[in-house]
Amino acid sequence: MTTGERVWTPVCEVAAVPRADGVAALLDGDVQVAVFRTGGDEFYALSNIDPFSGAAVLSRGIVGDSDGVPVVASPVYKQRFDLRTGECLDDGSVRVAAHPVRVEDGTVSVSVPVSTPVPASAP
Q1: Are the C-beta atoms of 62 and 79 separated by less than 8 Å?
Q2: For residue 72, which of 92, 103, 32, 60 has the smallest C-alpha distance?
Q3: Residue 5 neighbours by CB distance under 10 Å
Q4: What is the model's pLDDT at position 46?
Q5: Model confidence over 6-17: pLDDT tens digits?
Q6: β-pair partners for 61
Q7: pLDDT in tens, 79-112
Q8: ∠ CA 78-79-84 to the nearest 5 degrees?
Q9: Residue 103 burial by CB count (10 A; 0-12/13-18/19+): exposed, middle or buried?
Q10: Measured between alpha carbons, how far apart are the two ends of the chain, in Å?
């Protein structure tokens, strides 16, 4: 069990993420994220692991939109994931983790949950 705390981690400079593309980052040594920048200059972050293939490839997917929803299409089997929520548009029972993103002073940062053990006596 973990607490609800989150930590912000600087990932890269804004210029390192081309428009309508993504980049991969490894946070805290084991959390793989894919940071995306839409053609409209919005930033999103999802888990980089494609749940259909198990490969760490979502950052290399095709960024676009589907009926106004910002998406990335996996480069493996082409399933589309909502960049805002991580939900798979092609299979509503599947989703990837979506992480908050902020851009400050030209740096893109991603927030992930802190894995802090909760004492057994906690309710």
Answers
A1: no
A2: 60
A3: 9
A4: 98
A5: 889 999 999 999
A6: none
A7: 999 999 999 999 999 999 999 999 999 999 999 8
A8: 125
A9: middle
A10: 11
Residue located via tokens 């593309």: 21
Residue with tokens 């428009």: 19
CA–CA gap between residue 111 and residue 39 (Å, rounded): 22
* Beta strand spans in 1-123 (E): 6-13, 21-27, 31-37, 43-47, 62-66, 69-73, 80-82, 98-99, 101-104, 107-113
How far apart CA 68 and CA 63 sit, in angstroms, is 12
- pLDDT, one tens digit per residue, over 34-48 is 999 999 999 999 999
Q: C-alpha angle 4/9/10, rounded to 5°? A: 155
Closest-CA residue to 98 (of 118, 108, 113, 119): 113
Question: What is the pTM for the complete model shown?
Answer: 0.88
